[in-house]
Amino acid sequence: MSQSAAIALIENYYAAFNKGDMDTFLSLLTDDVVHDINQGKRDMGKDAFTKFMSGMNVSYKEQLVDMVIMASADGTRASAEFVVLGEYLQTDEGLPLAQGQKYNLPAGAFFDIRDNKVARVTNYYNLQDWIAQVSA
Prior knowledge:
By secondary structure, the chain is an alpha+beta fold. It contains four helices and six strands. It starts with a helix and ends with a helix. 16% of the residues are buried.
């Protein structure tokens, strides 16, 4: 895969996310995708990723903006930096009470790419910043 094809893959991944098109979003993952959840555990496989996204879509409404995507020359790795504009809709276990709070959170992600699909995604944002924003 070329560098430009890797960037296009990640652009499509986030475009599907922003549209709420989970079918397209999930179709861009390998069946054995590795998902490193921010400051949390590692999930393995598309089924686990699908379950994670189902929970996220209940508790949060998010749009990712100010996207900057980079990829290695050989197209096997990529990264993205962006801002999450979100609304906390339903209380997520172990987190503050949801009351429709809005948040604006810098974030990033790192990707392994295999067979023209995302084989690993590692997400990062500052959880303490998010907690402070929804607790204010």
